[in-house]
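This section describes the prediction task in plain terms. A model, or a person checking by hand, is given the sequence of a single protein chain and must write out its three-dimensional structure as a string of tokens. No templates, partner chains or ligands are provided. The sample shown here is typical of the held-out split.
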Amino acid sequence: MKNNIKTYIILNILLVVYSLSGIFSKLASNETFFSFYFILYYGIILLCLGIYAIGWQQIIKKLPLTNAFASKAITIVWGILWGYIFFNESITIGKILGALMIIIGVVLYNLESSGEKNE
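The expected answer:
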């Protein structure tokens, strides 16, 4: 159980790294094609996705694939947060309710799935 919690924490850290690629994608889209900052942002995107890909391979060795993929939905919550912090996008009640439903769904799915293994 303790090892599983550690794996879920690592998974969520990887999902934060994965969600950061969206920030740099949006930043790159505002730059001139092949300018210094365009190339820099895309380099950072590749770094984030590379770290995520290597970590993802390790995670799916330790978790059922269905649990790992269900947890990926949490990146939507990070997208809302990053949009607010970096791009001054609004956080509406609809976004908050949607994010809460995603979090609750991921937690319930993973709890139910963990209960099936223990039976």
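For orientation: The CA atoms of residues 21 and 46 lie 8 Å apart.
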